[in-house]
Write a structure and sequence with these properties.
heterodimer; A: mainly alpha; Cytochrome Bc1 Complex, Chain D, domain 2; two-stranded antiparallel ribbon; 30 helices; 62% helix; B: 63 residues; mainly alpha
């Protein structure tokens, strides 16, 4: 048979490699920045563009889509051409793919810093960029399938099945999850609301892990591991079985996050079962990878590329075991909302994804540049530093998760929360956050060593942009001959047909998850007292979304006693029906805010408190790590957008009256002026159009609709007189001092002198009188409307008497 | 958190989707399993080795 001459396109591979390296460094540096911010809030720089809420999505997106994304493309473009013995289908498509993807990344970085975000995790980009992603993704798929069609080999090697599954899976996920209604170029509302939005988001979230961080990497593993080890993969049969079962199972098991929260018991059980079953195909992959090195371990010892691959495959095995475990209900109680999740994703991200990328680069770059690796020693150094970094990163976070969870649900003998002040449970784990910074720093150092090593390698060689190769043309085979061919062989011989099969398999799983969500919408029981957001609250909510407050605050109280005691009544599905998008969050770095507006609940704070807190959280709680948001008091809300937003909400089904958009701004000003007047009483002057006012209104909306609103003074029990014997013992004073600094100091100041407008407990002015009984009832019954929490549900009688004594005997001598 | 659970429990016929999907999965799985196991080892070996025989698969450049 005659050989055909053709050229491999190496230039496009080189471009993707360079992008991988550059974005990788950026992504890790931003990661380090946000780690610093969590331990030391000064690193927010009091600058709105660099606050944690905006930087965290920048980090996750930079790592996932910029670093890992470009690495996938580099790996695919290199291996696809070699495996199919063909140049990429079309050079123009390759170029559009490369430059389009880099444009998306730059746009993402800029828009996140500006606070343009939909707040849906790993899908934060606004709609114009979403459309751009869809286009570029289609170009990638088109280019890939085109290459498969014009290939010069019969068989489509296993790696390529994974690439195809990646293309199809991500396309499906991205389109469904990004459906949103644009308001302007930079703002849109998710078409899904509340629980339904949460279901779609986590269907996306988990499967993005599957189809962006798992399937393409298994593909890369099936090519680069055998290549680097120069041995065939252990079992090709295993690779077939594990491919089909993995892509089928993932789509089903994906949303164990939401299965735990959002489905009937039998469906939850099914989801958990699928998650557990997923261990089998995942480990099939791991075993296939590790056994490939059977008899070649001596080579692993002195080859950094292989070492990284071994760590990657091992980390993959660990994470895919841990993940299913985390989907068990009783484990999930602990891991959800704590740092466990963060540790889990970093084992996978730094070990599996980054590890495989490093291994691939150390092998591929010398090949591509037709030279030797500049220094195998430095590569080995990188390996050890990176491995150590992963451990130093993850172990403290597991520790932190367990510590914090234990503190969250610990009760005193009297039946009160042992740590009613959330901040205390955070302060306890801050040292772990400091250790994590060391882990991150080491990882960055290792990365930079690699960059140096690789650039030196590139310098010493050169890429042949168009590399000549030869292969015989593919003879098109006729109809299937059942005697000689198995069905699978026949199917996969034809790339397009194979893609269709993969799509069908994915779609079955996808449908199984999407269907309930379609049903949910029409089945959500509405709660009559839950009203749509007023224009002011809506604007406040949009600021909340744009600032990424959900990166630290959840808005959903789970039905555990230790949550309802701390935050208030547990959340009902009907409360979220007007939430476009939902804001449940996934990590509680700060306290849950679902009940922040529930007057009389443990979370309620009055307007003056919020004002002072947003301006400077560290003034209210010295150890708070919340960033300052002092620009809320300076920046105006763009009221010209408000009517548009109301109309958009109407389209999405929020029942505002007909023509409400025309009076929305009037209503806005009316409500804003009430808050302004309230703040005025505390001697705070602010204009009604400021962001601060909208934010306070939103905070007071949260959970406010279900609160038994009794704003009249009638809520206060007329303080009866009670015989109180003050306790002056050293021990009592010590106990009281501790509680006071933990809980009361946030408003009354550490020495009781009162912060901002909160009452000074050390002077001679008393609002409610200063007899022991008066003070006792001031603490016991509080004054919810004014912002003094009724502590009878959080402190024991003895503690309240101790505090009364402390105030009267020590603070107010 | 069961806030949505109670709701889906009330949706009639939803269980069917899951049962159908499960059946489909298992039958597909069994077919693929049997077909795969019956393929000849020689053919598998050829495919496995094929990726190592192109021009750049002699020893890794490093070492």
């Amino acid at each position: 048979m005659e050989n055909q001459k053709f050229y491999y396109d190496n230039k496009i591979v080189k471009l993707f490699v360079l992008a991988t390296i550059i974005w990788g460094v950026v992504g890790v540096i931003v990661g380090l920045l946000i780690a610093l911010q969590l331990a030391f809030p000064v690193f927010n720089f009091d600058f709105e563009y660099t606050t944690f809420g905006r930087m965290r999505p920048l980090h996750t997106n930079a790592i996932i889509f910029a670093f890992v994304g470009n690495a996938i493309f580099a790996g695919v473009y290199y291996s696809l051409q070699k495996l199919l013995k063909a140049r990429m289908f079309n050079d123009v498509l390759s170029k559009i793919h490369f430059w389009g993807w880099q444009l998306i990344i730059v746009l993402a970085a800029v828009t996140f810093a500006l606070g343009i975000s939909t707040s849906k995790e790993y899908a934060e980009l606004e709609w114009p960029i979403d459309i751009l992603i869809t286009l570029v993704w289609v170009v990638f798929g088109w280019n890939m399938i085109g290459t498969i069609v014009k290939r010069r080999v019969q068989h489509i090697y296993a790696a390529i099945w994974w690439y195809l599954a990646t293309f199809l899976g991500v396309a499906m996920l991205h389109v469904v999850n990004s459906l949103e209604l644009p308001i302007s170029l930079t703002k849109s509302y998710s078409i899904y609301a509340g629980a339904q939005d949460a279901v779609v988001q986590w269907w996306y979230g988990h499967n993005a892990v599957a189809f962006f961080l798992t399937t393409p990497f298994l593909g890369l593993m099936y090519y680069y591991l055998p290549k680097a080890a120069n041995r065939p993969i252990y079992s090709y049969k295993l690779s077939i079985i594990h491919f089909w079962s993995l892509i089928f199972l993932y789509m089903w098991a994906g949303p164990h996050h939401l299965l735990y929260q959002a489905l009937p018991d039998w469906a939850q059980a099914l989801g958990v079962t699928f998650s557990i079953m997923l261990i089998a195909p995942s480990w099939g992959g791991m075993i296939n990878g590790l056994l490939t090195l059977r008899g070649a371990w001596d080579r692993v010892r002195d080859n950094a590329s292989l070492k990284f691959m071994v760590v990657a495959v091992t980390a993959y095995g660990m994470s895919t075991f841990e993940g299913p475990m985390m989907s068990l209900k009783f484990v999930n109680q602990l891991t959800h909302f704590t740092d466990w999740t963060i540790a889990h994703v970093h084992i996978a991200g730094m070990g599996w994804n980054a590890g495989l990328v490093f291994g691939m680069l150390y092998w591929m770059i010398p090949k591509l540049f037709r030279t030797k690796l500049f220094s195998e020693k430095l590569a080995n150094l990188h390996f050890w530093i990176a491995t150590l970094a992963i451990l130093i990163y993850a172990i403290p976070l597991y520790w932190a998760a367990v510590t914090q969870w234990l503190m969250w649900h610990e009760y005193t003998a009297e039946g009160f929360l042992a740590y009613p002040n959330f901040l205390e449970t955070l302060t306890q784990i801050l040292p772990m956050y400091t250790v994590r910074i060391i882990g991150g720093t080491l990882f960055l150092i290792g990365f930079l060593i690699m960059v140096y090593n690789l650039f030196k390698t590139m310098k010493s060689g050169s890429v042949e942009d168009n590399e000549l190769a030869e292969a015989p043309a593919l003879v098109i085979q006729g109809r299937r001959n059942p005697l000689q061919e198995t069905v699978h062989r026949w199917v996969e011989r034809r790339g397009v047909r194979f893609s269709i099969w993969v799509f069908i398999v994915l779609a079955i799983g996808g449908a199984a998850e999407i269907l309930p969500m379609i049903f949910i919408k029409s089945n959500i029981p509405t709660i009559e007292s839950v009203l749509p957001y007023t224009p002011l609250e809506l604007e406040g909510r949009d600021i909340y979304v744009s600032e990424g407050c959900h990166t630290c605050h959840s808005q959903v109280v789970r039905p555990f006693r230790w949550e309802t005691d701390r935050y208030g009544e547990y959340s009902k599905i009907g409360e979220f029906v007007y939430d476009h998008p939902y804001q449940w969050g996934s990590r509680r770095t700060g306290p849950d805010l679902a009940r922040a507006g529930y007057v009389g609940g443990p979370m309620y704070k009055n307007a003056a408190w919020h004002y002072n807190h947003f301006k400077n959280p560290q003034k209210m709680n010295e150890q708070s790590i919340m960033p300052k948001y002092d620009w809320f008091a300076r920046k105006d809300v763009d009221l010209s957008m408000t009517p548009k937003k109301i109309r958009a909400m109407q389209i999405l089904g929020v029942p505002y009256p007909e023509g409400y958009d025309e009076v929305a701004v009037d209503d806005y000003m009316k409500q804003a002026k009430e808050i302004v007047a309230d703040l005025k009483k505390s001697n705070i002057d602010i204009e009604p159009t400021k962001e601060m006012v909208a934010m306070i209104a939103y905070m007071h909306k949260l959970g406010g609709d279900i609160a038994p609103l009794q704003l009249d003074e009638g809520t206060k029990e007329p303080a009866p007189q009670k015989e109180i014997t003050l306790l002056s013992g050293v021990e009592d004073m010590g106990d009281a001092d501790e509680v006071f600094t933990k809980i009361c100091a946030a408003c009354h100041g550490p020495s009781g002198k009162g912060i901002a407008t909160f009452p000074d407990l050390t002077d001679a002015q008393w609002i409610n009188g200063n007899s022991p009984s008066d003070v006792y009832y001031s603490i016991r019954n509080g004054n919810a409307v004014k912002g003094m929490i009724p502590y009878k549900d959080q402190l024991s009688d003895k503690q309240i008497i101790q505090l009364t004594s402390y105030i009267l005997l020590k603070l107010n001598k | 958190m069961k806030i949505i659970s109670n709701l889906l429990e009330g949706i009639e016929g939803i269980r069917i989707f899951y049962i159908f999907g499960l059946l489909l999965f298992f039958s597909l799985f069994i077919i693929i399993l049997i077909r795969t196991l019956r393929r000849s080892n020689k053919e598998m070996d050829e495919i496995k080795k094929s990726i190592l025989t192109d021009d750049d698969s002699n020893e890794t450049a490093v070492s």
